[in-house]
Amino acid sequence: MTAGASRMLLEQIQHAATSAGLDAVGVTNTAPFTQARRAIDERKAAGLHAGMWFTYGRPERSTTPANILTGARSIVVCARNYEPPNPHTPEGPASAAGGSGTVAAYVASDAYGALRAGLERICEVLQRSGFEAVTVCDDNRLVDRAAAARAGLGWLGRNTMLLSRELGSWTVLGSVVTTAELPAPDQAQSDGCGTCRRCQTACPTGALDTAGVLDANRCLAWLVQAPGVFPPEHRIALGDRLYGCDDCQTVCPFNDTAVTPARGQPVDLGLRSNGAARGNSVDVAELLRMTDDDLMAAFGHWYIPRRRPEYLRRNALVVLGNVGDPDSPAVEEILRRSLSSASDVVAAHAVWAARRLGRDELVAEAQSAGLGNHDPDGLVAAELAIPVPRRQTAG
Ligand code: B12
Ligand code: SF4
Ligand code: SF4
Predict the structure, then answer these.
(1) Other C-beta atoms lying within 10 Å of the C-beta of residue 46
(2) Which among 180, 166, 71, 174 is positioned nearest to 120, based on CA atoms?
(3) Nearest-5° angle of CA 300, CA 304, CA 309?
(4) 3-87+105-178 placed in CATH 3.40.109
(5) Which of 127, 147, 175, 204, by CA, is between 20 and 30 Å from 358?
């Protein structure tokens, strides 16, 4: 392809991206992402990946884009902005007795759906011109942030987010890998963080104590998605977060000035049909009353470890302990029901929630009724053995 034809094709791509509502587009080559590879290897060696698979599973694959498509020459990388979280969520079930759980902003809007649709449009443009093209978005085959940084969409901040002066970090990222050779000048942006450390200070668990290196063992965004017991030492820090965490972004000064296009109402992700969730708030008591089928119908599009509803109930019980009304009959009913659950994960976290709310008598009653009789992995016994600081409630 001549340089002129290649530039014209890029213009068509940019036009397709803009008309599909994408907010930034850049191009990079398909050379391996060696710095990302090194970072993954180092984090794995230090155990900072906490057993996560994703891009950590096969680092050689996720950092070698040429493997995605035979003959690949370029990567078109795109960003799609989404609405930042509204801390006050006026429409949310804030007065719910069980408390209101918050959901990260990227979940409360369908940013990935819009991004994927835009990437498909770019694929069509390339394919019409006779090139092969595949989309890769939040996929284990590519390190999205490293690709975006190399394509000039921003720099990697101390919170590890891809950060742009224009868009901030409320973006999701995706790429089109293609056999077309597109102009890809070196346009990596310089670090804009300067002397700022706000994200590191704001992280409730110290997961960013080393700048630019995330310790997943302490990151709440991972812990709500990880299988097993929620680490007791991070339960109070979880606060009201049911799914995801936005703290290291809400404090970022570049997000104060970012251009966030108004895109109308948050998308109904099927959460509202049952009344349990509105905007980015979820009524945790109502969630805990749901059957497995209802819970998966409402929240099954989230990453729930091993597709087991007990893990979302686990998160909800920690939130209930942190923000629920200890005197509410509805909370009492949920605690009783959860303490008698056939799931050892649910029963174990119900022990913590009841004690955190100062309702130790419910635990004692449940023990008389057989709590812990089915405890193959000793989860309930372990909970009963640990001290739980009672939450101080007003009045
Ligand atoms: C695994 C994963 C996670 C894990 C681990 C995240 C992590 N930091 O590794 C968990 C579950 C914790 C997670 C959480 C979130 N995630 Co996530 N996640 C991914 C995934 C699948 C892979 C990330 C990866 O490859 N990590 C490997 C490490 C080595 O990469 P890195 O963290 O970017 O590391 C770079 C920096 O550390 C930098 N660096 C190294 N040393 C230093 C030193 C200094 C001083 C500095 C400044 C930088 C620096 O270089 C490294 C290599 O490039 C990607 C999708 C994908 N396929 O890429 C989405 C992705 C990164 N996640 C995304 C999002 C939206 C989130 C959340 C905001 C969701 C939420 N609200 O809960 C949080 C943010 C938490 C955070 N601060 O990162 C977006 C990020 C978009 C953006 N603008 O950056 C992505 C790209 C998904 C997507 N396609 O849009 N995520
Ligand atoms: S997502 Fe939350 S817990 Fe994870 S690094 Fe950011 S502030 Fe810390
Ligand atoms: S809060 Fe400050 S240090 Fe952290 S990513 Fe934003 S600008 Fe960089």
Answers:
(1) 11
(2) 174
(3) 75
(4) yes
(5) 204
Q: What is the rounded CA–CA span in Å between residue 388 and residue 356? A: 6
202 lines ligand 1 (CB under 6 A): no
Q: For the chain, give the mean pLDDT.
A: 92
The partner residues of 28 in beta bridges, in order of sequence, read: 75
Whether 81 lines ligand 1, by a CB cut-off of 6 Å, is no
Q: Rounded to whole angstroms, how far apart are CA atoms 187 and 177?
A: 18
Element (H, E) at 289: helix 284-289
Q: Which helix (H) or strand (E) holds 174?
A: strand 171-178
Taking the C-alpha atoms of residue 392 and residue 395, their distance in angstroms, rounded to an integer, is 9
Name, in order, each residue with C-beta under 8 angstroms of 186's C-beta and a sequence gap of 6 or more: none
- With a Cβ cut-off of 6 Å, ligand 2 is lined by 159, 203-205, 207-208, 214, 219-221, 245, 247-248
266, 248 contact by CB (below 8 A): no
Signed CA dihedral, 157, 162, 164, 169: sign only: negative
The Å distance, Cα 158 to ligand 2 centre, comes to: 11
**Contacts with 313 (C-beta within 8 Å, 6 or more apart), sequence order:** 287, 288, 295, 338, 341, 343, 345, 346, 349
Q: Residues near 59 by Cβ (< 8 Å), separated by ≥ 6?
A: 37, 40, 41, 44
CA distance 117 to 114: 5
Q: Which of 40-54, 80-94, 116-130, 213-227 has the lowest mean pLDDT?
A: 80-94
CATH 3.40.109 occupies which residues in the chain?
3-87+105-178
What is the per-residue pLDDT across 13-47, written as a single tens digit (0 to 9) for each? 999 999 999 999 999 999 999 999 999 999 999 99
